[in-house]
Amino acid sequence: MPLVYRGMRRDADGFPMLGETAKTLGVRAGFDIDVLQGQAVVNHKGMSVNPHWRHIHPFFRPKRLGFGGQGSNDLHCFRAGEGPFAASGLCEGLELVPDAPENGVIRHGVLRPSQAIPIEKYRANIAATREMWQIDEA
Amino acid sequence: MIRSPEQLTKASFGVLVDALVRMHLLSRVGKFESPEAEAVRDSTEEPWDELTIAERRHIVELSADLNSLEENLDQTASDIPSQALQEAYEARQAGDWDRALERIRQADPRATSPIALYFRGTIWAARGLNHVATLFFDRAAALAPDSDNYRAAALNALAQSNPSDAIGQAEQILVQAEDSGLRSLVVALAVVFSDSIGRSPEERSGIRKRLIPLLEKALSRLEEKREAPILRAKVLMQLTACYSSEGRIEAAIASVSRAIQYDPESDLAYIARAKLTLGTSQFDLSDFERAVELSTTDEVPYVFLAQHYAVTKQFEDVLVICRRAEQLNVSDTARSMLLNSRAIAEAELGLVSRSLRSFEEALRKDPSNEYVGQNLKLMQDAIARSDKSPSSWERPTERSLVPSL
Q1: Quick one: B226 exposed, middle or buried, by C-beta within 10 A (0-12, 13-18, 19+)?
Q2: Residue-wise pLDDT tens digits, B28-51
Q3: Which chain B residue shows the shortest CA-CA distance from A101?
Q4: What's the ipTM?
């Protein structure tokens, strides 16, 4: 299971907040994921993740961590998994698709559905990973 | 509008830079966690995806730089090793802005050295990002309040990126002109003078009347302190325009002539003097010729000289000046006049078919140009008579070719 990072808001229980935004655990239909007749399309789209928190989009990375972050300090860098950032399944129904390497380095990827499934099922699969995520800002 | 990938990337980069500046300004007023800041962040999501790797690196580095401007505010200003500055300077001169910035960042990671901050500002200004440059110049000025250079640089960059804010600051400097640093005063005068250009004639006249004594005093101070000739020329050029606005033409001519002495490479000064003296015994054609030698981008000297050479039967020179003007981005009216002069020269040199083509092109550029229409008719009549060219041509007056200063 690959090691992935994502900048998200923390819920009261310490796990990431669920939601359909760029800063919560979830996806925005039509933006993060294409939806056709209620089905999440399997293509290059999905929920954004990175192989390290320093590769997270700077405006979604907490400023307090330095390295040019401009994100709200209420955001946290969460991690899940522990294997190499390579194409593989993260858990049932979700697979990591890394972007092409840039100058030999992969900085971004998406968690997409393993197959075309209803968008709500895709969201539920993502939500099911909630307790796999823990804050790691080291 | 369909944009090329390069344009798309460029626009996206600009959006990200603007967002960084906006975030920095919001942060400075305690609004980093505000809904406004959140909206700025959200607006960056798609543009970020469109950036190249190098552009993303630039954005992250600039972001870190801007964040460093908010830290260490109570730090005493520090110096950086002169060798680091020298290396950065050489990199900048070689056009390697990334290396120049990297060297400065290494030498001044906490952004507490005024000279290093100033240097960073010059690089962002060279990149055309004056709103970014302003932030670095401002910080340098805050750390070294006695340095007039940093304040002047900050105001100058602000004038390029946010003219209305710059006018406010410039007016404040003018209120205390006597006590202001000379360089920032010169920039402030230039800012207020530039603002006068877009005003109504009455407002412009009022502003320039007010500027004259301030410019004269600034010039005296510059001369007393033996400041750079280029600065003196700059003030003298503004004085020239102010005197001219007031109808003080002799004073304007004297002023622009002094400006030329201080800055003999100023094409605008030669053009200004030619405009002021046109129609008088003081007019010297070589002022326009010198401006062209200096590769001026002002269309007036080219249009004027092309017609003058045609009138004085220097037809080869007409073709030369028109060729030089081909590279310029000139108005259709000016292009039409240049083509008209070229067509006349071509006709006189026996290049009949080229002449006809030039007249036709001149007419296409400016169908309202009555001289072109009349000359084309004269040319066609001459051909019908089997004459080499017409015995005379229709021409506008020289004065009509040269707008007032």
Answers
A1: exposed
A2: 999 999 999 999 999 999 999 889
A3: B53
A4: 0.91
